[in-house]
Prior knowledge:
Its EC number is 3.5.2.9. This protein is α/β, with parallel strands linked by helices. It has helices spanning 22-25, 43-56, 81-101, 113-121, 123-136, 149-156, 190-203, 230-243; strands spanning 2-10, 31-35, 59-63, 108-109, 141-144, 160-166, 205-207, 213-215, 220-224, 246-248.
Amino acid sequence: MLSIDLNCDMGESFGQYRLGRDEELLDYVSSANIACGFHAGDPATMRRTVQLCLRKGVQIGAHPGLPDLQGFGRRELAITPAEAYELTLYQLGALQAFVRAEGGSLQHVKPHGALYHMAAKRHDLAAAVAAAVVSVGAELTLYGPPGSELLRAGAAAGLRTAGEAFADRTYRADGSLTPRDQPRSLIASAAEAAAQVERLVRQGAVLSVDGEEVPLAAETVCVHGDGAHAVEFARDIRAALAQCGIAVRPLG
């Protein structure tokens, strides 16, 4: 039976501010990427999200980002490879402590936002992120864009890697995501998102915004937890996949 890992970025509330419907989302996804306090999240949110994942049997991953709460980690910062290593290691260690305290285990790492995209393009940053992951646990899986420097660095460091696609974002003809500041960067229909995931699983490709078929080898698909209709997207995607014989399962 065909299958795909459905992951979601979550744990992004901070103090009195609530973002996302994490508890509902965990009924539909197979793995969670939990914010570690730099771009979003706080200790109480991290602990609560870990507890929810363990209660619902969802794979736990760390979602380290750049130290930019105001920009939600989506603005590029001029960091060195040493800083990339240190800020990644710091965040992974924090989440791992909560996971172990609750009797669970950390399964994967997926950088967030600008850190994700910077490491996808720059080998030095990718190698630093991969080295931080290895320092925390060589058994962890590193998520990243298919064919990226991030996955190449992960593989070179001896990590298991997983190519990631997005259910709620559109792609350009070169296989890159349509930038968020451009029209049609987000998929607004759950049906369209489900169709994109089904095409990805069955054909190893997505359609670009211009209608071209773009090869994309991915083992995991992301739904953003901060999206206005994230719960409905995750629910409808899972239902559509079940109808066409594709199971939602965590990696490994």
